[in-house]
Amino acid sequence: MAEVIAMLEELRNIAPLTAEAAAARFSAQEWTPGGKVREGVETSWDKGGVGGWIQTSGDGEVSVSFFVWTRDVDESGYFDDLDAVYEQGEQMLAGFLHEIEESPLAGHLIEAEVTEADGDEFVKLKKWALDGRVLTAGVIQHDTDLPVMVVVALEEPGLRAHVSAPSLRSAPARSRAGGGRRGSVGAAHGPDLG
After folding, report:
1. Burial class (CB in 10 A: 0-12, 13-18, 19+), 131
2. Which of 49, 19, 17, 18 is closest to 32 using CA atoms?
3. Which residues, 6+ apart, have CB-to-CB distance to 88 below 8 Å?
4. Half-sphere exposure at residue 43, Cβ-oriented, CA atoms within 13 angstroms
5. Which residues are paired to 33 by β-bridges?
6. DSSP label at 29?
C-alpha cells in the first residue's frame, strides 16, 4: 500500500489536478500503463497488484482512484459467507488506515464527516480533507455477485468518482445483513474501462 501513499503525496501537490498531470505522476512513480487512453491520456495504471484510475467528470474535474484489494466472491470457494468477505475487506482497510496514519501524509489529513450517502455507498469507510480535496478509503461492493473491494479515492469536493473496474458493471445495489445499501460510488462520468 506504500505505492498508493506515495502517489497520494505526489497528487496532493498538483494544483489544479488535471488528468495529464496525474498521468505524468503515475509514470514518474513507475506505474505500468494499462492501455486505457481517454482524450489522449492514459487513465489506467498498475503497480504491485494495485490498480489506479484517473477519471474526469463532464465539468473537467479530475479524481484518482486506487483499488488496493479485491476479493471476487463468485470465484472464492471458501468465501461463500458474504459477511466473512466484508470482514476480510474491513481488515485490509484497517491495515491501510494504519499505514496512512503512520505516514508523512497524515500531517496533511483532516478527518471529514461521513455523510449518510457515504454510508449507503460503502460497507465501511474513513474520509478526510486533504489540501482542499476529499480523500476516501473504504470497502465497497457494487452488487452481491460482484467483487468486494478496498478503494481509495482522491477527488474534488462535490465530485463523486464512479469507482469501477474493467470486470464490473453498473448494477442495483443489494443490502448487507445489518447494513445499508452498497452501490457504486458516484455519477455517470466514470471511466470506460471495459
Report:
1. middle
2. 49
3. 71, 79, 148
4. 22
5. 45
6. T
pLDDT of residue 85: 86
CA dist., res. 163 & res. 187, Å (int) = 9
Q: What does the pLDDT read at residue 158?
A: 56
- Is the CB of residue 139 less than 8 Å from the CB of residue 122? yes
Residue 190 contacts residue 162 (beta carbons within 8 Å): yes
Cell output for 133? 480535496
- Per the CB < 8 A criterion, the answer to whether 4 and 68 are in contact is yes
Cβ distance 81 to 87 under 8 Å?
Answer: no
Q: What are phi and psi of 85, to 5 degrees?
A: -65, -45
How many other C-beta atoms are found inside a 10 Å radius of the C-beta of residue 78? 6
Q: pTM of the full predicted structure? A: 0.78
Burial class (CB in 10 A: 0-12, 13-18, 19+), 43: buried
How far, in Å, CA of 64 to CA of 83, rounded? 28
Q: What is the largest CA-CA distance in the chain?
A: 46
* 17, three cell numbers: 489536478
* pLDDT computed for residue 78 by the predictor: 45
Is residue 8 predicted with pLDDT exceeding 70? Answer: yes
- The C-alpha atoms of residue 85 and residue 147 are separated, in whole angstroms, by 9
Q: Where are the alpha helices (DSSP H) in 35-130?
A: 82-101, 116-121
